[in-house]
Every structure is written in structure tokens, then in C-alpha cells.
């Protein structure tokens, strides 16, 4: 299988040539907005009342089924990728494996993936995600050092426990002769040689791919950024690394290629906006196809191309779209008049 980190370069299309899209390349479905970790660099650890704190739930299975049925009814090519994850830990939802099975049988995407902390990857779950052929599981590691893991995640789950879960998954794959799910294990670069070495030593033999991820901020809601919370004394290094990989650009390409469905049914063009500022409809009230072709979605795209992000609180407080590591496409020069009009 293609390594997860190489997928972004595989069969890549020039957005300037293919926009506007008749349907998104990527659909994210949020099995759960809850998490069993409270990572200090994540909005899950925020204590103030917010849209996110008031909308924490597991997605009901009938809602997930309805989303997939709406995609089946949407003519055109399959999605490039269906991501069964968004703002929470997907394996917390007891129906996660059934969601995967339904999506696989519907054949609506070229690949299906999820992102998990793997702390809940027990033997039964591992067997089912292999049986139902999840294509990729991207595992988020926070530290391979016990004390640092507790400090970051606010949990007592040790790195060795997660390693054992991944080891059991790999054993099941070997026994069944299955290449799926491809296990891509990543940790945010700590900018600390000892911590990075510990990560590679801990997970090297239980991963199909092992890599260090780049630092980034979620939408900032307070005086202190999320990277400041996790890096502390190494924050200058993290900030310099982020800025070194940034390019001057205006438009975020996500609204032109992606659609995210939250556990409560709200639909957004963004996978970063935990505060809900970019919600453009609800799939219980209007189909995903109609939301994609709506005037609201069109106006959101125009706002991006015209550099009016200050009109949306979430976009005004986000900088991930500038980073070349996370955002490859520069569509600043795309003519607004060529955007589709609502059906």
C-alpha cells in the first residue's frame, strides 16, 4: 500500500484546472466529538462554555447511515477519501465498526481512513476494522515518555499500552494475510532529541509508517495559543518551523474540496473549526448535495477568494491555510465568476 504521507502526492490534480468540483474530494464524518484524552494543545482541554462544549455527543448510527445514503444518491465519481474522524476519538462510539462496515459496503470512496489515539483499540475492534478493511488508521501519539504522556493527555494511559494495542493489530493482520488497515503512527515534532528518539524506539516495530508531524494551531480562542501550551520552552522552535513552511496566500482551499459532517448533523467546509463558526447547513434538513450547491456555500467560497475572512470569526482566527505542509494548493488566482451557481 502507498504510505500515508505519500497519498497527498499520489494522482494529485491541479485545483486551478478542475475547479469548481461537482462534489467534494473529501468527506469527513464525525463518529464522536467526545474524547478520553484532554490534551493541553487541543480544544478538548478547554473548560469555558462554547459551541463545542454544548455539542459533544456520539453520532447516532441512523444519522451516519443517512449521510452515506445521501452520498450514494449523489451522482458522479466516488469520493477520493472518506474520513471517519473529526474532532473527537472515533473509537469511543460503540457503533464505529458498524459505521465502517456500512461505508465500505456502500463503496462511496476510493479509500476510508480514521485518526485515533489507539487507546481503545482492543482486540475485538482491531479484528473488525481489519475484517471490514479500513484502509488507513492514523495513530496520534503524544509522547513515548510516561510522565510527558500524562502531562500532555491528562490521562493515565501509558505509551506501552498503546504499543501493545498496535502490536496486537499487526499480529491479526499477519495471521489473516491482510495489508489493511495500514498503520501510520505519528507524533508532533517535540523539537527535543530525546523525546523524538523515544518515539521511534517505542513504535518502530508496530507501525507500517512512522513520522513526525508538524506543529499547528487550532482556531485561537484565548490569549495563549495551543502551540504555546504544549511547547513552552520550545515554542520559538515550533513557531519558526511553522513560519518556515508558510507561503503568502489568500484563499483556504478546504471549502472547494472538502465537507465535514459533525456528530450533530451540522455541515462545514472545514476540519479545523471546532467552534462551529463555519457551519453552513444541517444534513437532517437538507441533503449534502444541496448544501454543497447552496448559495451559502458559494458565498463562503467567494469570501475566501476575495480575502474577506475577517467576516467569519473562525476563518479570521485561523492560519493553517498558509502552511504548505497542511495546505498544498494555492487557488488565489481562481476567477470568482467561474464558480458554480446553485442548482
List the helices and strands and how they pair.
Elements: H1 15-18, E1 26-29, H2 61-72, E2 81-83, H3 96-106, E3 112-116, H4 123-131, E4 136-141, H5 146-153, H6 159-176, E5 182-188, H7 193-203, E6 209-213, H8 226-231, H9 235-244, H10 254-257, E7 258-261, E8 266-268, E9 281-282, H11 288-292, H12 295-305, H13 313-316
Parallel strand pairs: 1-2, 1-7, 2-3, 3-4, 4-5, 5-6
Antiparallel strand pairs: 7-8, 8-9
Helix pairs in contact: 2-3, 4-6
Number of strand elements: 9
Radius of gyration equals 20 Å
Helix content: 25-40%
Helix and strand element order: HEHEHEHEHHEHEHHHEEEHHH
- Morphology: globular
Name the poorly predicted regions.
none
Largest sheet, described in full?
9 strands, mixed
Give the terminus-to-terminus CA distance: 39 Å
Mean pLDDT: 95
Oligomer: single chain
Number of helices, where a helix is a run of at least 4 consecutive DSSP H or I residues: 13
- Percent strand equals 5-15%
Q: Look at the helices and sheets and give the structural class.
A: alpha/beta
Strand order within the widest beta sheet: 6-5-4-3-2-1-7-8-9
Amino acid at each position: 500500500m502507498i504510505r500515508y504521507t505519500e497519498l497527498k502526492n499520489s494522482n494529485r490534480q491541479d485545483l486551478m484546472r478542475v475547479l469548481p468540483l461537482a462534489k467534494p474530494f473529501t468527506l469527513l464524518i464525525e463518529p464522536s466529538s467526545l474524547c478520553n484524552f484532554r490534551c493541553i494543545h487541543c480544544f478538548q482541554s478547554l473548560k469555558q462554555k462554547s459551541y463545542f462544549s454544548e455539542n459533544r455527543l456520539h453520532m447516532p448510527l441512523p444519522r451516519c447511515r443517512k449521510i452515506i445514503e445521501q452520498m450514494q444518491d449523489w451522482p458522479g465519481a466516488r469520493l477520493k477519501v472518506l474520513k471517519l474522524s473529526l474532532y473527537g476519538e472515533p473509537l469511543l462510539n460503540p457503533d464505529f465498526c458498524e459505521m465502517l462496515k456500512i461505508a465500505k459496503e456502500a463503496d462511496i470512496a476510493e479509500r476510508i481512513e480514521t485518526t485515533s489515539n489507539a487507546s481503545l483499540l482492543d482486540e475485538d475492534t482491531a479484528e473488525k476494522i481489519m475484517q471490514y478493511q479500513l484502509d488507513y488508521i492514523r495513530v496520534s501519539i503524544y509522547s513515548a515518555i510516561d510522565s510527558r504522556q500524562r502531562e500532555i493527555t491528562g490521562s493515565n494511559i501509558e505509551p506501552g499500552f498503546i504499543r501493545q494495542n498496535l502490536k496486537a493489530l499487526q499480529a491479526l493482520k499477519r495471521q489473516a494475510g491482510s495489508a489493511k488497515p495500514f498503520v501510520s503512527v505519528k507524533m508532533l515534532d517535540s523539537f527535543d532529541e530525546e523525546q523524538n528518539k523515544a518515539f521511534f524506539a517505542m513504535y518502530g516495530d508496530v507501525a507500517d509508517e512512522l513520522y513526525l508531524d508538524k506543529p499547528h494551531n487550532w482556531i485561537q480562542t484565548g490569549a495563549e495559543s495551543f502551540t504555546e501550551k504544549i511547547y513552552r520552552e520550545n515554542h520559538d522552535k515550533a513557531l519558526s518551523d511553522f513560519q518556515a513552511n508558510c507561503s503568502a496566500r489568500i484563499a483556504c482551499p478546504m471549502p472547494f474540496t472538502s465537507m465535514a459532517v459533525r456528530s450533530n448533523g451540522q455541515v462545514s467546509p472545514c476540519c479545523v473549526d471546532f467552534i462551529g463558526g463555519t457551519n453552513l447547513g444541517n444534513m437532517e434538513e437538507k441533503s449534502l448535495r444541496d448544501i454543497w450547491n447552496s448559495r451559502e456555500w458559494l458565498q463562503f467560497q467567494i469570501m475566501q477568494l476575495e480575502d474577506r475572512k475577517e467576516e467569519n470569526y473562525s476563518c479570521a482566527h485561523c492560519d493553517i491555510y498558509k502552511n504548505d505542509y497542511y495546505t498544498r494548493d494555492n487557488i488565489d488566482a481562481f476567477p470568482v465568476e467561474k464558480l458554480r451557481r446553485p442548482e
